[in-house]
Write a structure and sequence with these properties.
The chain is α/β, with parallel strands linked by helices. Helix content is 46%, strand content 18%.
Length: 248
């Protein structure tokens, strides 16, 4: 399924002067953006707020590029990280003409759901339809596509969380986790990939397998809410490598 992308990588690696570089796009939310810790902080007006730590060099897109360069060390690989903190699939659809398509990606990874799930069950159809339209638009532009599911949201309110707002948000997320609300969004993402005949990189399924085996997945979130730790971003990257070479 990704034979053209892999051939382009191989050609560029073998003869850089006579072949074009490879461009890989990433469309998503805060995890794609490279957001990690979310800390309680005061606003300029002295009100309770938050401060988000951005560290894009430790995001899964950066890890993915480094992994590919280990395999194709002479290739030029351009990464277009079009992830924005707080984004959702419908908004991603609206802005992809500005933020992604002008760079003509050979391959695009699409990862949404963490913010979309705030719409409850009534928002699932909108989320699914936006994903389908994103995929169709990318395919029409000549990009291969991988739909990647994110990790689960927090399964509990972590004892290390500080601040009334953050603890309240964690409670809301953990309830969505417990009642299966977030899982229903991930089922919609899988359906969108299947309906459009593109590859699925099901990171969510891997995290849930760990959860069922006794792993405290909330401890693996850097903000104890919905951002995986820097180490767990490597799981996203290695899963993408598997998908790229295995084609599913």
């Amino acid at each position: 399924m990704f034979s053209e992308v892999l051939k382009k990588l191989a050609d560029k690696n073998a003869d850089a002067f006579h072949h074009a570089p490879v461009t890989i796009g990433f469309l998503g939310d805060s995890v794609t953006n490279g957001c990690f810790e979310v800390l309680p902080a005061l606003t300029d007006h002295g009100e309770e707020g938050i401060d988000v730590v951005f560290d894009p060099e430790n995001s899964y897109s950066a890890h993915f590029r480094r992994m590919l360069l280990n395999l194709y060390p002479k290739a030029q690989i351009n990464i277009i990280n079009a992830g924005i903190s707080g984004d959702s699939a419908p908004v991603g659809l609206e802005r992809m003409d500005r933020d992604l398509l002008p760079y003509h990606p050979d391959l695009t990874v699409v990862c949404y759901g963490l913010n979309d799930c705030g719409g409850g069950d009534d928002g699932i159809a909108r989320y699914h339809d936006a994903l389908v339209k994103i995929i169709e638009k990318l395919k029409a532009a000549g990009s291969a596509v991988i739909v990647m599911t994110p990790q689960p949201i927090c399964a509990r309110v972590h004892t290390q969380l500080r601040g009334e707002w953050l603890r309240g948000y964690a409670k809301t997320l953990s309830e969505k986790f417990s009642d299966g609300g977030f899982d229903r969004y991930m089922q919609a993402a899988r359906a969108a990939a299947e309906e459009t005949c593109v590859s699925l990189c099901d990171v969510y399924a891997k995290w849930m397998a760990m959860y069922r085996s006794g792993v405290d997945i909330t401890d693996l979130l850097s903000n104890y809410l919905n951002h995986p730790t820097r180490e767990m971003h490597q799981l996203f990257a290695s899963s993408l490598i598997d998908t790229l070479f295995m084609g599913s």
